[in-house]
């Protein structure tokens, strides 16, 4: 029996399979940061030979690839919620900032609390593992709470970095990508959007703004979604190419041989974003993949993805570092148990964050958007 082509979704229909993908990507980021803290040799530059890090299986711990997926998905979602007119653009840009800044502020305050509770844990764990990743976390003396609040709500959007909760570096790119998509949609007629988005992506690549180009790629997928008819073989092929190009860890030594040269190019900046784009297209085109990512467990992970992204690093640099130091030296079984504890604790904290921060923020912004649009309609 031939599968029927789905009816093209409207601008506001939610594509739930992409929520499941977001949840899986968030879990990969958790493992990525855990390994960077306690097993940094996994990410060593100029590695030689061939390992799992040179294969698509690295998608399970390649947080950089997951961030590329987040940026593509953000472009897709922003295109779906883009302004209906130029007059709406300032309203939606302001609401987008609040949507990012409120959870970021709360997570920065939480991170400050964990650092104050375990003030020496990062320094002591750093001495044991030598991981350069710890340089992106404050060590004593810990700055005051006011600094954490400033960096979470404002500073990270200006500087693109914070040492309270280092995953917040993506917030600047998210805000810039939102401005780009919202303003672009406000001033571009619908018939020209795909052309403008393509030109914008090319220009951004040439400017080495690959993260922002991923937003254009996601918006292009949204604009062309009606063309992505179910085709299992083609969809799986595109997904395989995307994983081969983008999922391996970058850092393989180039070497004199052709194989080493190829391996050294995989997973690098640009190929990650291209691979993430192909993976998203693959899921939309492949019925079996859509069904897999629409499973209830993955949908729940998707719902928790942003809270999980925001709360896991404070746990790693606080109690997880303290446990690692107390139990050192820690072998592989101990690290596995420690990761299981971090993952469970991150999920446990993500749930109240979802109920107390994420959902109230989204509901409040939805009400503001409805009121704002109603007021604009009367002007």
UniProtKB/TrEMBL annotation:
**Which UniProt keywords are given for this protein, alphabetically ordered?**
Acyltransferase, Membrane, Transferase, Transmembrane, Transmembrane helix
Q: Which residues form the Acyltransferase domain?
A: 17-353
Stretches that traverse the bilayer? 20-38, 58-82, 94-115, 194-222, 234-254, 274-293, 305-328, 334-357
GO molecular function per UniProt = acyltransferase activity, transferring groups other than amino-acyl groups
The record's InterPro entries line, in alphabetical order, gives: Acyl_transf_3_dom (IPR002656), Acyltransferase_3 (IPR050879)
Source domain of life: Bacteria
Q: Name one Pfam family in it.
A: Acyl_transf_3
Protein name (record)? Acyltransferase
Whose protein is this, by species?
A: Azorhizobium oxalatiphilum
Highest classification ranks of the organism: Bacteria, Pseudomonadati, Pseudomonadota, Alphaproteobacteria, Hyphomicrobiales
């Amino acid at each position: 029996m031939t599968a029927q082509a789905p009816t093209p979704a409207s601008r506001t229909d939610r594509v739930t399979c992409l929520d499941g993908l977001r949840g899986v990507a968030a879990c990969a980021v958790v493992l990525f940061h855990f390994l960077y803290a306690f097993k940094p040799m996994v990410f060593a530059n100029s590695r030689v030979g061939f390992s799992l890090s040179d294969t698509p299986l690295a998608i399970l711990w390649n947080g950089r690839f997951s961030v590329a997926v987040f940026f593509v998905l953000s472009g897709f979602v922003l295109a779906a919620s883009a302004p209906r007119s130029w007059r709406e653009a300032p309203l939606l840009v302001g609401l987008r900032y609040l949507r990012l800044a409120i959870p970021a502020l709360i997570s920065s305050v939480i991170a400050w609390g964990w650092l104050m509770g375990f003030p020496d844990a990062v320094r002591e764990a750093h001495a044991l593992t030598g991981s350069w990743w710890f340089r992106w976390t404050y060590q004593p003396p810990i700055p005051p709470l006011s600094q954490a609040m400033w960096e979470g709500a404002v500073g990270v959007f200006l500087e693109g970095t914070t040492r309270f909760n280092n995953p917040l570096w993506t917030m600047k790119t998210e805000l810039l990508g939102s401005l780009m998509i919202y303003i672009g949609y406000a001033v571009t007629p619908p018939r020209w959007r795909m052309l403008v988005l393509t030109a914008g992506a090319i220009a951004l690549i040439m400017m080495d703004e690959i993260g922002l180009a991923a937003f254009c790629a996601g918006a292009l997928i949204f604009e062309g979604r009606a063309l992505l008819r179910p085709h299992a073989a083609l969809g799986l092929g595109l997904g395989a190419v995307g994983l081969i190009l983008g999922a391996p860890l970058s850092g393989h030594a180039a070497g004199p041989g052709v194989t080493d040269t190829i391996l050294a190019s995989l997973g690098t900046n640009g190929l990650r974003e291209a691979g993430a784009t192909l993976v998203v297209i693959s899921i939309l085109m492949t019925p079996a993949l859509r069904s897999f990512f629409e499973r209830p467990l993955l949908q729940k992970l998707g719902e928790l993805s942003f809270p999980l992204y925001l709360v896991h690093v404070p746990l790693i640099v606080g109690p997880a570092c303290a446990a690692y130091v107390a139990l050192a030296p820690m072998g592989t079984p101990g690290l596995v148990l420690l990761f299981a504890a971090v993952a469970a604790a991150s999920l446990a904290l993500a749930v109240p964050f979802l109920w107390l921060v994420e959902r109230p923020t989204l509901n409040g912004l939805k009400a503001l958007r409805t009121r704002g649009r109603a007021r604009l309609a009367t002007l």
